[in-house]
Amino acid sequence: MAALILDRVTIDFPIYDSQKTFRSALRAATGGLITRDARTPKRVTVRALDDISLTLKDGDRLGLIGHNGAGKSTLLRVCAQVYEPTQGRVFSEGKISPLFNAAPGLDPDDTGYENIMTCALLMGMTRSEIVHKTPDIAEFSGLGEYLFLPVRTYSSGMLTRLSFSIATAIDPEILILDEGLGTGDAQFAEQAKQRVDALIARSSILILASHSDALIQSMCNKAILLQSGRIVREGPVQDVLDAYHGLPRIS
Amino acid sequence: MNAQYGKVFSDIKNGLLDWRMWGRLGWQETVRRYRRTTIGPFWTTLSLGIFVATLGLVWAQLWKQDPKAYLPFLTAGMLAWGLFQSIVTEGCLVFTGASALITSMQISYTTLSCAVVWRNVLVLFHNIIILVIVILYTGSSVTWYSLLAIPGVLLISINGVWLGLLLGAICARFRDTQQIIASILQVSMFVTPIFWSPEQLGSRRNAFVNYNVLYHFVDILRAPLLGKVPEDLSYHVVLGVTVIGWVLTVFVLSRFRRRIPYWL
To answer: Is the ipTM of this complex over 0.90?
Structure first.
């Protein structure tokens, strides 16, 4: 039984040492709302998320859609409980496995096998579980002998395969992916989809942020559209994608 | 507010108990230092050895000390000081250094601080070789009191964990702090009796020795390494600092722990 509930979550990022000109540049670039803190008028904050409420339960596969700077990554990090909201509350039940650019704790100088151990420990597996699952992770990653080499020698696609293999090996109840599959090739994307499908079949939640319509369509069964930190559309995947493509670009 | 205290206590409890995690993180960091170099962390040991051998002999002459007594004193002092200093300087980077990890998953901050302390204790184990060589060379005695080095390292480590949490948080928010602390430590090395013994100060001993917290941290490890018992005062001061430091850290974290990811 997994669940993830966001109750009126707002996130304000403090920006330290920002010049006035920088602030106006930021306003244009992010689409976020830049305000001055009421109590300390000198402090600049960026409102990355504004009054977000979400309820996810078993079997939900949510796609996050939105332009750059709309708040997708921030929302994922709130779901991963990295950022405690400035206002509002987050409630979650179930083991969370986040996968952003690379698996958390991945060190470029360690070998693939060493990283499997470190990352899986960080994700809460025990040493014997990891030893037991390492052949499976190694096989799914398809990296073979490369796992004996330092990770810094990997291509970004290979890094994705390794990270994804580790992140999905722990039987997460809530899997959080940020464009994580973007750099894998078509064959790996297909394998990844099967693995996520199998994961979802064991009753869990997927949250995926991506700019790829095809990926969202194949992996998700509902979606939300974010703009300037607010949910502007939520519902079936196709509806939300249509709304996204009808959205004017932020100038 | 109470909920925040609860979160801080569970962070500390889970972090300390998760020795597999911080053990792994600290160990891998040490293993990495061996990569693509022949002797890895022993370079630190080697430079410490050269430092002690050359300056030790010069200063022994300068201050008209017996080299057979002065060399072990200097070496043991440098070991204790090196452990404390590197824990504090690297402790400042606990959060900024692990920003990729902290912004990608929920992790106990205490685990990260423990990893820093553990990695520096491992460096100490490397450096102890120098002391062994010096003791063999000078024929100094090893006594049962030498075993007090174990509680000495433990006390420094326990303080290192709160120092990392507190200084790490402050340095994440105010990036200048790290430089300030590094400068203070550098000066403190000369003001604290490491190169010279407290007895040399005579009547002015209080200001630089008894009132100097750093002296007591050095003493609880240096004295046992020399086969002696640390002063009672040193244990009292260090235990007092341990309690005050942890209380202060819990207080500060309960107010600012949730802000730390935003500072990175």
So the answer is: no
Contact residues, chain B to chain A, C-beta under 8 Å: 20-21, 24-25, 28, 32, 35, 100-107, 258, 261-263
pTM flag (> 0.80): yes
What is the least distance, in Å, from the CA of A121 to any CA of chain B? 7
Q: Cβ distance B87 to B164 under 8 Å? A: yes
> Between A20 and B168, where is the model more confident?
B168
Query: Which residues in chain B have Cβ-Cβ distances shorter than 8 Å to A96?
Result: 105-106
For B175, name the nearest residue in chain A, comparing CA atoms only.
A16
A236 in Cβ contact with A35 (< 8 Å): no
> Please, which residues bridge with residue B175 across strands?
none
CA gap A236, A233 in Å, rounded: 10
Q: Are B21 and A120 in contact (CB under 8 A)?
A: no
pLDDT of residue A35: 62
Are A174 and A207 in contact by the 8 Å Cβ rule? The answer is yes
In the numeric block, which tokens belong to residue A146? 């490369």
pLDDT tier for residue A251 given thresholds of 50, 70 and 90: very low
Axis crossing angle, helix A186-201 with helix A156-169, rounded to the nearest 10:
10
Residue A118 has pLDDT above 50, yes or no: yes
Q: How far is A80 from chain B (nearest CA, A)?
A: 6
- Among A196, A53, A65, A124, which residue's Cα sits nearest to residue A73? A65
- Cα nearest neighbour of B261 on chain A: A83
A114 has a chain B CB within 8 A of its CB: yes
Indicate the domain borders of chain B. 5-16+76-263
Cα B99 from Cα A17, distance rounded (Å): 19
Cα–Cα distances in angstroms (integers) from residue B192 to residues A95, B163, B198, B239, in the given order: 49, 19, 9, 19
CA-to-CA distance for B237 and B249, rounded, in angstroms? 18
- Nearest C-alpha neighbor of A247 from the set A33, A28, A70: A70
Yes or no, beta carbons of A82 and B32 under 8 Å apart:
no
pLDDT digits 0-9 by tens, A59-104: 888 999 988 888 888 899 999 888 888 888 999 888 888 888 777 8
